[in-house]
Amino acid sequence: MYRLTGSELAFNILSELYSIAVKSSEKELVKRLLELKDVVLNERPTSMAPLNILKQIGLYILEHGFTSVDKYIVELRDKYESALERAAEIMSKRIVSGEVLLSNSNSLAVRKVLRHLSDQGKSVKIYVTESRPGNEGLLLVEYAESLGFEVYLIIDSAVRFFMKNIDKIIVGAEAVASNGAVVSKIGTSLIALIAKEARKRVFVVAPILKFSHETLYGELLKLPEYDWRFLVSEEEISKLPVDYRARVPLYDVTPSEYVDAIVTEYGLFAPQAIPLVLSLVERSVTSLSRSFEEIMSGLKALVEV
């Protein structure tokens, strides 16, 4: 079962809302935006790019009405695409031809880094964990091989064994908290811990749209868990004890002290500098200080009128 990355989900939401803005009524647009909010909060509560997209579109409607909302959605998409490209380009400049990289999952940001490396003619080797549950690492391997890189697929539990071969670790993120902690695919924190032990540098590629402004004001990020269907088939589950239970976390939190740098479209920052980065963004975009729930409540009132 293919699972969209956070950025892919954000782009899908933008495409759907643009189509509704062009073809349907204003009430339908708000109704669908609120429905998408519920879906993301229930299924992907740590995916900050989709949530920040919904927040910004909702805020635009509350402050400017529906005039040119379709153009605003296109502008948001272009800005996020540009932010991903810029962050990936900055990261690629920190990689030297001949280095050996390690990554996991199927991050769109990481894929863009690899494409930039390919465009720059840099030759690197890449180790990729299979990234259970979901095995998204296989997709990253397929993409890296299509660019002509030498790629090694390894099981998640073998990271420490292979860490001696690695020069740099590059991962994506679902969210970056105000304290510099990173929410990413389960297993990322273990990779970062092993990298710290081996004195290897860990880079997180995450545009500002993936930063959680709410955590600046004390909100906590909720980590979702899924059931056994992400681990075994129904046929396999029938062979297990009746009281069989499974816990399947999809994401974990990597403490800031295990991350060397977070790479954004504005440059490369130490995790400890993220509170300052967020505060500067808050000042330049004053509307971001309005809470997510406040904005969604305002939209709900529009629908109920």
Account of the protein in words:
The chain is an alpha/beta fold. The protein folds into 2 domains: 6-83 and 287-304, no CATH class; 91-222 and 247-284, Rossmann fold (3-Layer(aba) Sandwich). The protein is 47% helix and 14% strand. It has 11 helices and 12 strands. Helix 4 (69-92) packs across helix 5. The longest helix is centred in the N-terminal third of the chain and has 24 residues, at 69-92. The radius of gyration is 20 Å and the shape is globular. The termini are far apart.
Main sheet strand line-up: 3-2-1-4-7-11-12
- In DSSP terms (H or I, runs of 4 or more residues), the helix count works out at 11
Largest sheet: 7 strands, mixed
Percentage of residues assigned to helices: 40-55%
Question: What's the CATH topology label of the largest domain?
Answer: Rossmann fold
Q: Please trace the helix and strand order, writing H or E for each element.
A: HHHHEHEHEHEEEHEEHEEEEHH
- The total number of structural domains is 2
| CATH 2nd-level architecture of the largest domain | 3-Layer(aba) Sandwich
* DSSP, total strands: 12
Mean pLDDT: 90
Tell me the structural class.
alpha/beta
What is the rounded Rg?
Answer: 20 Å
CATH class descriptor name of the largest domain: Alpha Beta
Low-confidence stretches: none
Strand-residue proportion: 5-15%
- The CATH homologous superfamily of the largest domain is named Translation initiation factor eif-2b, domain 2
Distance between the termini: 40 Å
Shape: globular
